[in-house]
Design brief:
Length: 477
């Protein structure tokens, strides 16, 4: 744990790992999260690379190659070539049991199997072998920590977390690694001596999200627009093929997932399941439900139900910043020798994107918004709502219903200066609130909240706004 004190963020995850290492029994731990989010870095750093055994799966390799790789790792940790390449995974994990039984280690013996989904080639029986290894031997020990890790969140969920076989309910701990928040992203950039204003960091976040590997590509001494051009638009840029590689790493068959994403990328306010079917041309079956669930589990999209608990309608909305940015800009302009991004600034396409991207950031930081509203200790529920009936057409993207009988209706507006609320906008906000109140027969107090970059310039129309949340508030932990 030599470097853990200097680690940025990950406080909750480190608390989980502390609890695991202090257990008096053996633990089966599942670490998962999207590609490039820092899963392997966290585990390597926490345990200071002191493992009884570690093996990383190989991308797009055969069962024989995976077994050979596993055997090489076994011999490395045995300090001598005593194991022959196993013919099956049952044999491979029997070797692992033998290795661990003969290792003299004080304290816990940590086994770290990284990129486990890559090892699961067709008809490999890998899961059966892990089931037998853990159920027959691991659970009988008191000093084993088995950590399995992977970026293929759908695989992890189906094969382990929601397994109906021998691994059913076997995971003692689930450690989900989320992207950095704005505050953590700022701390990370500062740790690399990169000087940006909060406004520039916000724009970087609206493009990259809080993915550490993406942020690592930012170079010192260059503006945010120069960096974006060189990372995403210049041919052979460091993240040139990242979009396809991201979805290939998450899902075995990414094509239907990409069709859903492409459909959602065209509508800022989201789509119903029926609208997704119409736009994507996918069939309405159980597979589509799995696709939507998988995308939601990876924080690529969000699903929100109607405010009325009786409502069965769900709206699906794209919330991953990088995915939106790719579909709005990279997909169109591709990779070339020209500077692209700095010439987009100020265009209508840029203004349309930055508005929805700012909304995405706000949705990802609703806890910071609640902190600013001084309701962090109050039970809350977060909703979105839309209406299109005889009462009128209206939509509210962020509702916070509080246990103290108040509903915060949040308006999210990106602006390069103090936001000026004009008469038309004030009337439209009031209209939507009234439709929301009437259509849901609301009897609670409604407080409109403006979330904007530099605050609100007060005038004769701003009395409708009860609270203002600024960009600085979003940067709070």
């Amino acid at each position: 744990m030599a470097h853990i004190d200097r680690m940025i963020g990950r406080k909750k995850e480190i608390e989980q790992l502390n609890a695991i290492t202090n257990e008096k029994e053996s633990s089966f731990v599942v670490v998962y999260g999207r590609r490039r989010v820092g899963k392997t870095f966290l585990i390597n750093s926490y345990f200071d690379n002191n493992f009884a055994f570690k093996c990383t799966g190989l991308s797009k390799k055969s069962k024989q190659e995976q077994l050979q790789n596993f055997c090489t790792a076994l011999n490395r940790y045995a300090n001598e070539p005593i194991y022959q390449t196993p013919k099956t995974w049952m044999e491979a994990f029997d070797y692992l049991r033998n290795l661990l039984e003969n290792k003299k280690i004080k304290g816990k013996k940590v086994v770290f199997i990284d990129e486990l989904p890559w090892m699961d080639t067709p008809k490999s029986n890998l899961i059966t072998a892990i089931e037998h290894f853990w159920n027959d031997w691991g659970t009988t020990q008191s000093n084993i920590i088995l950590i399995v890790c992977g970026s293929a969140t759908s695989w992890i969920t189906k094969k382990i977390l929601k397994s109906h076989g021998g691994l059913h309910n076997r995971a003692d701990y689930k450690v989900y690694i989320k992207p950095f928040t704005l505050s953590e992203s700022k701390e990370y950039l500062q740790s690399r001596n990169i000087v940006f204003t909060d406004r520039d960091i916000l724009e970087a976040y609206m493009i990259m999200g809080g993915i550490p590997f993406y942020l690592k590509q930012i170079q010192r001494g260059k503006s945010i627009s120069q960096n974006i051009d060189e990372i995403f638009f210049v041919r052979n840029g460091s993240l040139e093929n990242e979009y396809n590689e991201l979805f290939a790493s998450l899902y075995d068959n990414p094509e239907p997932y990409l069709k859903v994403i492409e459909a959602l990328a065209t509508k800022n306010k989201g789509l119903t399941k029926e609208e997704i079917i119409s736009n994507s041309k996918l069939l309405d079956n159980g597979h589509l439900k799995n696709i939507l669930d998988d995308l939601e589990n990876c924080y690529i999209i969000r699903r929100y139900r109607g405010y009325d608990k009786l409502s069965k309608m769900s709206i699906y909305q794209l919330i991953d910043p990088f995915t939106l940015f790719y579909n709005r800009f990279i997909k169109k302009y591709g990779h070339n020798e020209k500077e692209i991004w700095r010439y987009q600034i100020g265009t209508g396409k840029y203004e349309a994107w930055i508005g929805i991207a700012f909304e995405q950031v706000c949705l990802l930081h609703h806890l910071q918004i609640e902190h600013k509203l001084q309701i962090a200790g109050v039970m809350t529920e977060v909703f979105a709502w839309s209406n299109n009936n005889e009462l009128g057409k209206a939509q509210i993207d962020l509702l916070i219903r509080r246990a103290d009988r108040i509903i915060n209706v949040c308006e999210m507006k990106f602006c390069e200066t103090e936001y000026i609320l004009n008469k038309k906008e004030a009337e439209d906000l009031n209209r939507r609130i009234q439709i929301f109140r009437n259509s849901n027969k609301i009897k609670l107090t409604i407080h409109p909240v403006l979330i904007t970059t530099y605050g609100l310039k007060f005038n004769e129309h701003t009395s409708i706004i009860q609270n203002v949340v600024t960009m600085n508030d979003l940067f709070n932990n």
